[in-house]
Design brief:
It is a single chain. The chain is of the alpha+beta class. It is built from 4 helices and 14 strands. It folds into 2 domains: 67 residues, no CATH class; 171 residues, Glucose Permease (Domain IIA), CATH 2.70.70. The strands form 3 sheets. Strands 2, 3, 5, 6, 7, 9, 11, 12 and 14 form a 9-stranded antiparallel sheet that branches. A 3-stranded antiparallel sheet has the order 4-10-8, with no helix packed on it. It is an enzyme of class 4 (lyase). It is a peripheral membrane protein. Heterodimer of a large membrane-associated beta subunit and a small pyruvoyl-containing alpha subunit.
């Protein structure tokens, strides 16, 4: 009907609703509620029980999994994570994304590229999404430390997982899920050989973390330091587009 307001799934009368909770988080929410009921119902410690119950609701909120309106421009590279752009700099891609692992795909070329880092606080959605459509060529998990994910060196020392996706035209994007101070597990939803759509859910990092995106050589970001990103919606860059590089760490 002309003039009808639609939501992001093509349904009429768009409006706010509580987003679904990812299955990975439901068990944690139930456990948190069960623990909070002990001081409320068993010990009659309301001063402790009610705050714990509110925290339990926060656990459910952490694992929320809202739908996203994904840009369909073929040149677009979208943000894989919700959060704050905390770092934009020129770096060498991680060795794990460059070396030939025998899979038949050589990996990213050597040489400096632009890395965009998105820091996720505990208040952000932690479902990560594919920045481009294509085939998952590589998924490499590396155990490590649990330093503040906002630090530059976290990309080399923290627990992390590298994912490499190749488009049908040969353009490849590598990105890294990095655990932080609170995050203790990185959970992939995909494996090498899987075909993914742009904006498709590809993984989850529990309780605060960061995602680094390595743009193709010659491709510069359309986002600014301190800008907030929405996974699957915010366009980080267009392949072949050129803008001035803003380098540094958000203050």
């Amino acid at each position: 009907m002309a003039g009808e307001i639609l939501d992001n799934q093509g349904r009429g009368e768009a409006g706010w609703s509580w987003p679904p909770i990812h299955p990975e988080g439901r068990k944690y929410g139930v456990i948190a509620i069960a623990i909070s009921l002990v001081p409320l119902l068993v010990l009659d410690w309301e001063i402790i029980g009610w705050p714990m119950l509110l925290l339990s609701i926060g656990v459910f909120a952490f694992f929320r999994d809202p739908e996203r309106v994904v840009p369909q421009a073929e040149s677009a590279i979208v943000a894989p994570a919700d959060g704050l752009v905390s770092l934009i700099t020129q770096v060498e891609p991680p060795a794990e994304l460059q070396i030939d692992d025998g899979s038949g795909f050589p990996g990213l070329a050597a040489g400096p590229v632009t890395r965009v880092s998105i820091f996720m606080s505990v208040f952000d959605v932690h479902i990560n999404r594919a920045p481009i459509a294509g085939t998952v060529r590589r998924l490499v998990y590396i155990p490590g430390k649990f330093m503040n994910a906002d630090l530059d060196k976290a990309s080399e020392e923290n627990e992390r997982q590298h994912i490499l996706i190749e488009r049908t035209d040969g353009v490849a994007i590598g990105f890294t899920q990095i655990a932080g101070l609170v995050a203790r597990r990185i959970i992939p939803f995909v494996k090498p050989g899987d075909t993914v759509a742009v904006g498709q859910r590809v993984g989850l990092i529990r309780f605060g973390s960061r995602v680094d995106v390595y743009l193709p050589a010659g491709t510069e970001p359309k986002v600014l330091l301190g800008q907030r990103c929405i996974a699957g919606e915010t366009i980080l860059a267009d392949v072949g587009a050129s803008q001035g590089l803003l380098e540094g760490i958000a203050q």
